[in-house]
Amino acid sequence: MPHRTFIIFILPSLLSMFLLIAVPIFSAMTQSVFIAHKQVLQVSETCDPFGCKKETSVDAEATAELRVKEPLGIFNGFKTYTNRNHLAVAEIKTFWNVTTDWKDFFSRIMNLPFYKALVFTITYTFVVTPFVIILGFLIALGTNSLASSLKGITIFFSLLPMIVTPLIGSLILFWMIDADGIIGSTLQIIFEDNDLSLKASPTLTWIMLILYGIWHSTPFAFIVFYAGLQTVPQETLEASMLDGASLWQQKRHVVIPYLMPLIIFVTLIQLMDNFRVFEPIVGFNASANATSLSWIIYNDLRGEDALQLFGSASATSMLTIIGVGILLIPVMIKIWKEFNSKTV
Amino acid sequence: MLSKITLTTIFLFIIAQTTYAACGITSGSIRILANDFPAIHAILSAAEKCAGGGVTFTKNTTKEHRNLQVAGLTANPAEFTSAIVANGSIVPLLNDGLIRPLDDLVAKHGKGLKKHQLITINGKIMAIAFMANAQHLFYRKDILDQVNLEIPTTYEEVLSAAKAIRAKGIMEYPFALNTKKGWNLGEEFVNMYMGYDGQLFKPGTAIASINNVKGVAALKMLKSLTEYSNPDFLTFDSNATAAMWEAGKLSLATMWGSRGGAILDDKGSTSNITSNTGLSGAPTVAGGSTPATTLWWDGLTIAKNITDKDAEATFIAMMNGISTDVVKANNDKAVWLVEGFVPGKAAAGVSASATAGAPPYPMLPYAGLLHSALGSELAEFLQGNESAQQALADVEAAYNATAKEKGFL
């Protein structure tokens, strides 16, 4: 392909990647290294229906003047990244110096919001991803061996969890697992424990969120693998059967290697998606027991009374991007190697 | 038959004419952003009657109003001509100078307003309050009778009543407050801390001062109370507690006064529960005299980045919205601050708390940041995973980081 044609061909996608990916990332990056101006405060008499008193307020005009001079705020370097609500570098140093054993050191680190969220995010990612791939593969195999009259309806029902909006799905389950809900009260009867509450215990909340994640994402893996299974060459399968391969050996040595590119694809997408776990935490009202990096960003952007923390949110976003990058490195290396081996 | 229709038409025409005349605006654009609850709907539908002729009227009533208001009023011309705010949500508008002083409009069109409705900062009227709200005690008379106890007036009495109710096997979890992690939990701490006469900040500065004896005591009291709440308490917001009350699952609860009307009406519950439900002032705590609650007001503001003509039209329409007639027609929907309000059963708790000297929620520019830090850092103590001192130290550390980012420290 001539270079000119190639450039014209790829220009629209380059342009949209630049506008929709590079520019927002650059903007978040910029925001994360600035903080707001010093607010000019004044003490004045404030009166409301309940009386008058001297109270501090912001001198809006003086603060606005500062803002006009330097619209971005004060340059803060990477201090937002290292502060207590993010990487907490100074705090960790102190913990290192004052603690005597590892257990105490780690329990103190787990008290910091960023690390607490990071641990849940990583646990969620590394438990949900393999389960989604294995279950999706098994369901695809099962559906593929069904009589063709049953296939359509099975596929439809297997896809349902993915069709339900995550927020709605988790909200419905949230009501079902309530102590008065069908799942919650059934569990109480089974375990003969009236205090059993899926919402109150951190461990049970984590298990619930992870189960929900598996339930929600498996259909995606299933439908990709099912599509892949339709293209598995029958000749190779028959040849392996003639060679006396057992059912397991056929799957292990023919089907799985054939589907490997799809498995890598699903792993890639799932790692990225699961690292950004967010909706179930909101839907299940689970933030007391489990938070994720995306949830922290959301919390900073919501603010109380519109005091949004754009710098903090941007810093967490950048750290999330770095996290996704680190997760994807092994998968990327594998893809790169395969790519090279094919071109050679 | 014909005459009836004619009469009705004439009658409707007269009504339309009088309201039109009462408004006295001929042109302008009125665009209102507000929270979403019955009292606000009553006000806005009255204000909407000013529309017609050259006057256009739009409203956006949403629970997300706080997240829209700054962006909506920063635009020039502003997206909304008026934002309905409360003590907390007026602060960002003041911080950025997005609302205009109302002195001349009040002088010209605000004759019916009472002095206590005017929110003044530095001598300038910045908002007009129309209703008050506070969290206070809801109780079930029939259940208190069963354990032979009076209506609790202190949180210590609430604890012993809850203990008695549990001991008698009436309810395992007789008590609740709005303890959902986040804003609600932060509000419960602020309320309880006020009961101990605590100071949220070192006077005159933005330095948080909650990690002290009073803070620890307030936190421990909250923990003792939540031990009588269902273990799911960290997911309880006002919708959840109100629903539990109406389902008869609570004997005592600290809830918002603005929920009173809906709880006492004949919808959503049985007559046995509603007829035995009483509202009383917020309890005091630890022998103090200040009710452990904060007072809130809801009021209207007028945007700065709009034409004076639109500002005047909006102000006049909103004055019609909060007129005495509207308040009389919607008496039980809120604790109105407007002339003509007759306090009913639903207003008892807020009135009693205000009379007993409950402090208003502070209109400080950095209060929201501390509230936010409280909401996210206190849950672990209530779950029993860390000490009260540690939880409060975490709050201050989280607050310091965000206050630096926002330029307050």
The strand order across the widest sheet of chain A is: 1-4
CATH topology of the largest domain in chain A: MetI-like fold
- Report how far the terminal alpha carbons of chain B are from each other: 75 Å
So what's the CATH class of the largest domain in chain B?
Alpha Beta
CATH class of the largest domain in chain A: Mainly Alpha
Helix-residue proportion of chain A: over 70%
Subunit organisation of the chains: heterodimer
Largest interface: A-B, 56 and 70 residues
Shape of chain A: globular
* Largest sheet properties of chain B: 10 strands, mixed
Category from helices, strands and their pairing of chain B: alpha/beta
The whole-number mean of residue pLDDT values of chain B reads 91
Number of helices of chain A: 15
Full CATH superfamily name of the largest domain in chain A = MetI-like
Describe the fold and architecture.
The complex is a heterodimer of chains A (344) and B (409). Chain A is mainly alpha-helical and 344 residues long. Chain A has two domains: 65-111, no CATH class; 114-343, MetI-like (MetI-like fold). Chain A contains 15 helices and four strands. In chain A, the strands form two sheets. Chain A has a two-stranded antiparallel ribbon with strand order 1-4. Chain A has a two-stranded antiparallel sheet with strand order 2-3. Chain B has 409 residues and is an alpha/beta fold. Helix content of chain B is 45%, strand content 16%. In chain B, helix 2 (38-48) packs across helix 13, helix 8 packs across helix 16 and helix 16 (367-377) crosses helix 18. Mean pLDDT of chain B is 91; it is low at 13-21. At the A-B interface, strand 2, strand 3 and helix 2 of A face helix 3, helix 4, strand 4, helix 16 and helix 18 of B. Strand 2 (41-48) of chain A pairs antiparallel with strand 4 of chain B.
